[in-house]
Amino acid sequence: MKSSKIALWGLACLFSAANLAGAQTRSAITGSVTDSSQALLPGVTVTLTSPDRVGGAQTATTGQDGTYRFSDLPPGVYSVSAQLSGFRTINRTEMRLLFGTTLTVDFTLTLGTLTERVVVVGRAPAVDVTTAQSTSKIDAELIQATPTVTDQRNGLELMGMSPGVNLRSALGAARDANEVLLDGSPATAPERQATNAAVINSDWMEEIQVVAVGANAEYGEFSGAVVNFVLKGGSNQRHGLLEYRTVRPSWIGNNVGSLSSTLQGRFTNTTVLEQWDADAQMGGPVVQDRFFYFAGFQKIRNDTIAAGTPLTPGPSTQSQWRALGKLNWALSNNVKVEGSVQSNNVTLEGNGSGTATPETGSVSSEPNTLVSTRATWTANAKTLVEFRAGGLRYEQSIDPKTGGRTGPPPHRDTLAGISSVNLASYRFLHETRAGFGGSVTRYQDHVLGQYHELKAGVDFNRIGFYSEAGFPGGLSFSDRGGQPDQVTIWAGDVISATGRRTTLYAQDGWRVTDRIRLEPGLRITFNRGTTPTAGDIFSTTPIDPRFGFAWDVAKDHKTVLRAHYGRYHEAFGTTEYQFTDTATQTVQITARVNGPDNYTELTRLTPANNLLVDPNITQAYMDQYMVGIERELFADFAFSAQYIQREGKDQFNWIDTKSMYAPVDVRDPGRDNVLGTADDGSVFTAYNLTNPGVGNRVFTNIGSRRYRALQLVAQKRFSKNWQVLAGYTRSRAEGSVNNQITDNYGGTAANNPFLSPNNAINSVGRNTLDAPHELLVRGSYHIGLIGGFNFGGSYRYISGNAMSRTAVFRLTQGNTTIRVEPRGTFPTEATNSADVRFDKTFPLGGRSRRLSVYLDIFNVNNQGVATGAAAPNTEASGATYGVPVAWSTPRTLLCSGRFSF
User: Fold this and answer.
1) Mean of pLDDT over the chain
2) Superfamily of domain 137-142+144-900
3) How many other CB atoms sit within 10 Å of the CB of residue 740?
């Protein structure tokens, strides 16, 4: 028997894992039991119950130190009771437990009989004093009671409910620097952490957990944040929902009045032709206390002409469905299994944009499937073993709406700033991710302090990538004043790559005293990448030390002082080496257009032997420092203040080791991009390529980014009919590396600051997505009269993006875009918008059957502002300089009906 236990323990250790957020430590309830003299009481029976927990009631007995602990708990509502012969029983009920949170619930027993019972309703600490981690948690009550985005409840947009997140740029990082998870399993595409696959209905969410500040060694693969969408599950109570939401064409306002008459003629107001979505979901028990299920299905239709499109385009159409299934099963009191599968398929047909004509439209489809499974074994009162497996399959096809891949080549006018004739490029993607592992958690008493919460593991993750891309017709023209001026000749590429990531980590929660906790941790990852052409081409082994400190300032568990240091490496993705699959890539030639089918070659890029990975490359990383304090001011209400500093180093970027340049004086052509006019600027130095056609691009480490922020957050959990989440962030993001999409992986050839000396001009400074001031407030109030009324609202202020002017220069290597002003010279207009929700509930009899009618009003103040993550306004000198790329959606009314039971 003893040898079998040793074998089981060895097997558990072999498969113990972090699995990114296997890494997702579940919640816990802990505390101590004393008598009225504050003497610790051993032998007290503590009982935990919840309709949300599979497995039924759970009991624990306090040890000699009078403490108890319940771990591996799902989010939900819990009751905890403490009883001991000779004392009155105390029952703490209706305590809301959020994901990844430890509630400290102490009991003081007074003399009496077991039959005497004291009930304390709905009182749980609002502050987690047991960790240095400062996690943003948005629960289902806040999501459901406040207006959600009109984008069919796409969960990714709800990331913006967390303070410090702007257009998915979390705490100054690039938009692709987040690790998005579905119930703890990766939901990002393996190429470059793209979030296309993570489109999740907010009605199915129990909670959104944003982990960044103070994240311990369980978390990795990010330089922005880990965002975990925790799905709802079944319970002992059967529940369901049917909902229909719609926006009618006449329910859209008009907010283009602030534009000039010229732009109003070109930038039409948003037009809704058809917009609705329907949602059905059901959850409940298969076997009481033992086997729960949850399932959902959603259908979406959205046909619109977006604000900022040309005057007479066709509509952009979206047809989409999503389906979800989740099971929770307690095989025994000690073994539990859960799993979920989500499938999604969206078909989009677009018709140009604010700077493109209708024939540049596209047809795209994105089918994907996400799988997450988890099993746990409670070996004994102090040991928890966990096993995880999950993965995704993602596809995306983007093709020209007219003409197909062989259709007429696309055109882009450098003076007018207008794209025309055809879609800029086509692409097909097929990506896969599969991972498995587990973890072992051990609670060890009375070793160098009161106790240690030790967790260790190893995780294996395999990724795959396949891509086809090219220009329609094999050409892409750059026009000047309506006439073809330059052409890029490219027959297209086919690229494939695979990768393997193995991670080991160890994390300790060391309770030195009853009020001080240290959190040392270490994470080691082995990244290996392969392509058919280059073989095993990519190898990095990042090591991430972490150390946290938490001080429970007072014994009432209402105030915690936190400090943390951690190193976080950029996620491993195929974009770091997939370009070395050069056997099926074709030469790209840039040429001057002399006339129809008459070109003079300027330069060329030959992929074979010229797209390389630095053999000494390391994984890009950031060092993060945090110090903060959080205080419960009154029941369910906490306020926190924290300082955050991030230092991004050894960033991924491209360099060219063979191209040579000579300085040349050029004059800024001014905003009209025409020399010899009154707005011409000064003369400055640009660079002519002197040896065209020999470019040798190497993917390496160079460049830095820095982020500093002071953040204030106040949160009131729902109780006494109201709730609120408010946050203010004062920050600055700057450096030689920007923070737009793909910038954490070297960006594009046009904007990479290290690929040519022309790109480096004015490249250092404020990052584009640097919002010095961000204020968000979201909350709701419930009135219980006549079945119930609810008023919810949100307000957001974000100062404008850091923009600057660019201009196109005719150099020896061809038309070259140069940033002629430092970034941030003209910040864009701030977002200043409010949304509100009114709903009325009608009880229909029974315990929980009700009908609710909702009215959401988005952009109540009808602000009209340029929008877009990369550049809300056109940066390029010319006729469209400063013109909005896209325009905010005007005041919109959305009506919903919901039947729930």
Assistant:
1) 88
2) TonB-dependent receptor, beta-barrel domain (2.40.170.20)
3) 21
